[in-house]
Design brief:
The complex is a heterodimer of chains A (about 270) and B (about 240). Helix content of chain A is about 40%, strand content about 25%. With about 270 residues, chain A is of the alpha/beta class. In chain A, strand 4 and strand 5 form a beta hairpin. In chain A, helix 3 runs antiparallel to helix 4 and helix 5 runs parallel beside helix 6. Chain B has 9 helices and no strands. In chain B, about 80% of the residues lie in helices and about 0% in strands. The longest helix of chain B has about 40 residues. The chains are: A alpha/beta (about 270), B mainly alpha (about 240).
Chain lengths: ~270, ~240
């Protein structure tokens, strides 16, 4: 049980100037768990999610990921972010890159960086001489990216630029772009809020597939039907604290917190 | 009529004087080109420092230095800057064309910094966040994602800066550099007639500027076209 915890958040707080957005929030996310975070706008739910990979630097508290406190500014956050995929409300595909390049860019750069480091070390006899070459890395990552694109049925869009795609296509590509890094956890920040209604389904379907494959997921969403279906645990944020948490059945069926009752009355 | 032709001939044909105009024009373009390269380099670096400072809060001192540089360069006349570099800083160096190019490069850098700053600001914040969320460093994201988009967005303005430079560099004649703007004076000193030398130089400037403006319009058109194509999926046309 104890070893099963993938991300452990302890007393996390975050302020923007005077404004205190998160007030001492603590949660554990277990490997394979699907945690859905709900709440009214301004409740701190997106900030909590963005703190998990330090896209927002926490003002206080700890985030333990793989036995390291990644909230500590001395930790090389880039290495940890490579294992935490993130999907944004506005997709944020790289506009100057094709779909294929969007997916391969980060894996290729990260692997090339490792390759160069190993080469330097090998020069001083401190490591094995690397056996892979840039061409190999590129070919491998392209193959992997094409497989991911084929999986979401967008293989023919590999050479297209993001601006030619629909919102649903963009978001599905953004999801597989994160998957290309083989992350241990996926963070979703309102992934369907910027989509036209008819495109919400295709994105949620892909997320359900991921959930069924056992991916650890933390999701901020307003899709209550999806939350009920996929979540192992639902967290209701209010005023920068976790006001109530529990299974979907407990939260939706028998909400105790008054604010949660009011929130559910509005969104359901 | 005949008299006008003699005056023109003296200004342009006698002693192959037309060559002087084209040599001057060559120097003008050389100075403008080198100055543009220096200016764009300085300007983009300064805009980048400013951008990183804004997004991450790092590089505070570098940003202060950049802002000081921009204030001083934009707040003083370029003629004085030219004289300071020509007569003081590079007093030991007799390559006037290079000194002129460096002066205008340093000067233009302060203006390009503002252009490039707008270019960087036009890139959506989400692009940097997406790069960082994938585990790339700030610099890796800048290099592969932000800079290419920022440069593309301000390409027309950058090219316009080059056109400005072609005209503005005419003051290098002030310190005795033989650019196109200096030639009419040289010829007048032989023929005691300013009319045609000035007209010819003006026409040459105009032709070059018009040609470059055409190139600029072509760039703008191409960019608009690729933007239209890009938006095709949602526009339907």
């Amino acid at each position: 049980m104890e070893n099963n915890v993938l991300i452990s958040v302890k007393d996390l707080s975050k302020s923007f100037g005077e404004l205190e957005v998160l007030k001492s929030v603590s949660i554990d996310i277990k490997a394979g768990e699907k945690v859905v975070i709900i709440g009214a706008s301004g409740s701190g739910k997106s900030t909590l999610l963005r703190c998990l990979n330090c896209l927002e630097d926490p003002t206080g508290g700890e985030i333990i990921f793989e036995n390291e406190n990644i909230a500590d500014p001395h930790v090389d956050i880039n290495i940890h972010r490579q294992k935490m995929g993130m999907v944004f409300q506005q997709f944020n595909l790289f506009n100057n890159k094709t779909v294929l390049e969007n997916i391969t860019l980060a894996p290729v750069m990260v692997r090339m960086q490792k390759l160069r480091r190993q080469k330097h070390l090998a020069l001083f006899g401190k490591a094995e001489k690397p056996t892979e070459t840039k061409a190999q890395i590129l070919a491998e990552e392209q193959e992997k990216a094409m497989a991911l694109l084929a999986r979401i049925g967008l293989a023919e869009k590999a050479e297209a630029y993001p601006s030619t795609l629909s919102g649903g296509q963009k978001q599905r590509i953004a999801i597989v772009r994160a998957l290309a890094m083989n992350p241990k956890v996926m963070l979703f920040d309102e992934p369907t809020s910027a989509l036209d209604p008819e495109m919400v389904g295709e994105v949620l379907d892909l997320m359900k597939e991921l959930a069924n494959e056992g991916m650890t997921m933390a999701i901020v969403t307003h899709e209550m039907g999806f939350a009920r279906e996929v979540a192992d645990r639902i967290i209701f944020m209010d005023g920068g604290v976790i006001a109530e948490e529990g299974t979907p059945e407990a939260l939706f069926g028998n909400p105790k917190n008054v604010r949660l009752q009011a929130f559910l009355a509005k969104v359901l | 009529m005949e008299q006008l032709w003699t005056r023109f001939s003296k200004a342009f044909l006698v002693q192959n004087r037309w060559k002087m105009y084209f040599e001057g024009l060559g120097n003008t373009l050389l100075i403008a080109l080198i100055a543009a390269l220096i200016g764009i380099t300085i300007g983009v670096v300064m805009a980048m420092v400013n951008y990183i400072n804004k997004k991450t809060g790092k590089l505070k001192i570098a940003t202060k230095i950049c802002n000081f540089y921009i204030t001083v360069v934009r707040g003083t006349p370029v003629v004085l800057q030219l004289m300071i570099l020509y007569f003081v800083v590079f007093a030991f160096w007799d390559n006037g064309i290079m000194i002129g190019a460096i002066t205008f490069g340093l000067n233009s850098g302060a203006y390009v910094a503002e252009i490039a700053r707008a270019g960087f600001e036009s890139v959506d914040d989400g692009q940097m966040e997406a790069g960082r969320s994938l585990g790339l460093s700030t610099w890796q994201t800048m290099r592969t994602i932000i800079i290419p988009q920022a440069v593309r967005n301000c390409l027309p303005s950058l090219f316009n800066e080059f056109i400005m430079l072609v005209k503005e560099t005419s003051i290098v004649g002030y310190v005795g550099i033989y650019d196109l703007g200096k030639i009419p004076g040289l010829i007048q000193s032989r023929t005691f007639d300013y009319l045609f030398p000035l007209l010819i130089a003006a026409v040459l400037y105009l032709v070059v500027v018009l040609a470059l403006t055409r190139v600029l319009h072509m760039i703008e058109k191409r960019m608009a076209k690729s933007d239209r194509n890009a938006g095709g999926a949602t526009n339907g046309k």
